[in-house]
Design a protein that fits this description.
With about 650 residues, this protein is α+β, with helices and mostly antiparallel strands. Among the domains are: about 290 residues, YVTN repeat-like/Quinoprotein amine dehydrogenase (Methylamine Dehydrogenase, Chain H); about 130 residues. It has twelve helices and 29 strands. The protein has a five-stranded antiparallel beta sheet with strand order 2-3-4-5-29. Helix 9 packs parallel to helix 11. About 15% of the residues have low confidence. Interacts with KATNA1. This interaction enhances the microtubule binding and severing activity of KATNA1 and also targets this activity to the centrosome.
């Protein structure tokens, strides 16, 4: 019998030498997920078909490096903004420049096409946002309000609004019909890199360099939820087409988020570095990144990534109950009204604005357009992808997903974490055969399917940890004898009541001892349940964490991570994540800093504590590495911790 081949969840598709100089911008076509455009310091825009090695078309005309790119929804037009503030729009089917749009005074940082009108929005380092009519070759309106560079622009699905994200830490929502600011969303503490509208509901997501993702309600104009600090800045975000979850691209990882309540469903390790753009096609997520003159593309199989209808992954605290997410079909908010024809309201702005806002054609612009060229470098691919307008099909072939390569050998998987391990077990278990939640192990390795006894005691239980309900009831002598006499049952319960009182009294005594003394006494008691109780309190107030506290609890955290109780592992993961985020930079800086001149007792004490913490973290990193291949929420949590601890290697 043939052995089933396990394929990867995420893999590298290809790497191309995109330009003769450094690449400065890349974008994917959202219509097919197969079109790739790159801009470089060589002032060229190159068009590629994802997974094909040869450039299809090279667009010239800009005289300064390309800073921003965007492809329109039907992939017929592409717009490029340069460092000088110039914008050019090319018709890919006609293979020629369509418009040159001067007006900005500094770098073009962001561009976006209107979803169904002939309009382009541009954001610049000059802090202005301009709305352009591509057909009329003019600026319709200029929005002013940001105080720093505008990094991202997005039109709403109904085409009535545009959202902007900027380095001034704000997200602004503009009304295209009224030509004014609707609302300013504040809350980010760092530059906002990306913003994205929900495909159906009045919901907006924003990602920032402050390492948070925020969700905004566009009816009540307030924050819905906030995904707390991650390890690296948020580089790009993309909603699933049905709106069930949000994909967020980080350094070398993809995270899947829900927002009501906020939660991380999964973390997929993808070695894509600083990912620049995401697109979805055939239930596969395509991600592209660039470094120097090369561009790399990666694929994530979304059929093996948990979304809102699956058990959430990641760090979930015991004091936060699991609330089932809202079903995809029932929306809590208004739904966008998409007109069947092009939006005519923005066009009316041309009549209401002064002549100075509109840009009339000039001989200089005509000369610029004549100097712009589209060099078709691969005639065969060009004809296949950009056919004449009256053809039935003009988009790249997209009916077949990219084939997934086989998973690496098990031996290699122990040395390097593989992003697909968390999904391997889940896809092999039919949903209808899942056992009762109390009996099902919450953590399982990819080789433990044949085991019948759970290796971990789940946190969601119908009986207290350490106590068995069967101890309080008489054993059933026969299958037919299922009903108990009241007196007999009460006698058994009273007998077990004494055991319960002893356990609770002992635990209360331990907590009183800790309250009267210090955390050192909690460790001296050698009872992990006491340590868990205390850490659950400290985790709610990160300001309580000190370097002294780290040296005391890190050995206990190592024990918690190896515990058979799921709630202990959850608490250990949460505490370790807080320590890594708050103290790892300090520890590495202290260990790499040159020795001080003279005697500095406080510095020496701090250095000693840092060395002790570093040694303990190295020991814990081995535990995290061994458990990063587990499935379920803890596998995802351990992989996230492994990313945070990468600097220890």
């Amino acid at each position: 019998m043939a052995v089933a081949v396990t394929t990867k969840t995420a893999w590298k598709l290809q790497e191309i030498m995109a330009h003769s100089s450094n690449v400065s911008s890349v974008v994917l076509g959202k219509g097919s997920g197969r079109m790739l455009a790159t801009g470089g310091d060589d002032c060229r825009v190159n068009i590629w078909s994802v997974s094909k090695p040869n450039c299809i078309m090279s667009l010239t005309g800009h005289t300064t490096p390309i800073e921003s790119l965007q492809v329109n929804p039907n992939e017929k037009l592409i717009v490029a903004g340069s460092r000088s503030g110039s914008i050019r729009v090319w018709d890919l089917e006609a293979a020629k420049v369509l418009r040159t749009l001067p007006g900005h005074k500094a770098n073009i940082c962001s561009l976006h096409f209107h979803p169904f009108g002939s309009f382009v929005a541009s954001g610049s380092l000059d802090t202005n946002i301009k709305l352009w009519d591509v057909r009329r070759k003019g600026c319709i309106f200029t929005f002013k309000g940001h105080t720093e560079a505008v990094r991202c622009l997005r039109f709403s699905p109904d085409g009535k609004w545009v959202a902007s994200a900027a380095d001034d830490h704000t997200v602004k929502l503009w009304d295209l019909t009224a030509g004014k600011l609707m609302f300013e969303f504040t809350g980010h503490t760092g530059p906002v890199n990306v913003v994205e509208f929900h495909p159906n509901e009045y919901l907006l997501a924003s990602g920032s360099s402050d390492r948070t993702v925020r969700f905004w309600d566009l009816e009540k104009f307030q924050v819905v939820s906030c995904i707390e600090e991650e390890a690296t800045p948020v580089r790009c975000v993309l909603f699933n087409p049905d709106g069930c979850c949000l994909y967020s691209g980080f350094q070398d990882s993809l995270r899947v988020y829900g927002w009501e309540p906020e939660r991380c469903f999964d973390v997929v390790l993808v070695n894509w570095g600083k990912v620049a753009d995401l697109s979805i096609s055939n239930n596969q997520l395509i991600g592209v990144s660039f470094a120097q003159s090369t561009v790399s593309s990666f694929v994530v199989d979304l059929s093996r990534v948990p979304k809102s209808d699956s058990v959430p992954h990641g760090l979930i605290r015991d004091d936060q109950p699991l609330v089932p997410p809202t079903p995809t079909g029932s929306s809590l908010r208004r739904i966008y009204d998409r007109p069947s024809t092009s939006c005519s309201k923005p066009q009316s702005r041309v009549k209401h604005n002064s002549e100075s806002e509109r840009h009339s054609p000039s001989s200089e612009d005509d000369r610029d357009e004549k100097e712009s060229k589209a060099e078709i470098q691969n005639q065969e691919d060009y004809k296949e992808i950009f056919q004449p307008k009256n053809a039935i099909c003009r988009t790249p072939p997209r009916n077949e997903p990219f084939p997934a390569p086989p998973e690496d050998e098990p031996g290699a998987a122990k040395e390097a974490v593989k992003p697909s391990q968390a999904a391997d077990v889940q896809t092999s278990l039919p949903k209808q055969e899942l056992p009762d939640p109390v009996q099902r192990p919450a953590i399982a390795s990819s080789t433990s399917l044949t085991r019948t006894e759970p290796s971990v005691i789940p946190a969601a239980r119908n009986e207290p940890i350490g106590l068995k309900a069967s101890d309080f009831l008489p054993a059933v002598k026969s299958q037919s004898q299922t009903e108990l006499v009241d007196e007999e049952a009460m006698s058994q319960i009273r007998k077990g009541h004494e055991t319960m009182c002893v356990v609770l009294t002992s635990r209360h005594k331990n907590l009183d001892a800790v309250r009267a003394n210090s955390l050192d006494s909690a460790v001296a008691i050698n009872d992990l349940s006491v340590v868990v109780d205390l850490l659950n309190i400290v985790n709610q107030k990160p300001s309580l964490w000190k370097l002294d506290l780290c040296t005391i609890v890190l050995p206990q955290i190592e024990k918690l991570l190896q515990s058979k109780y799921e709630s202990y592992v959850q608490t250990g993961c949460t505490s370790l994540k807080l320590i890594l985020q708050r103290f790892l930079p300090l520890i590495t800086d202290m260990l790499t800093a040159p020795p001080s001149v003279g005697v500095d007792i406080s510095r020496e004490e701090r250095l000693h504590k840092c060395k002790l913490c570093y040694k303990q973290l190295k020991n814990i990193s081995n535990v995290v590495k061994n458990k990063s291949g587990l499935s379920g929420r803890h596998g995802s949590a351990f992989r996230e911790l492994l990313l945070l601890m990468a600097v220890l290697d």
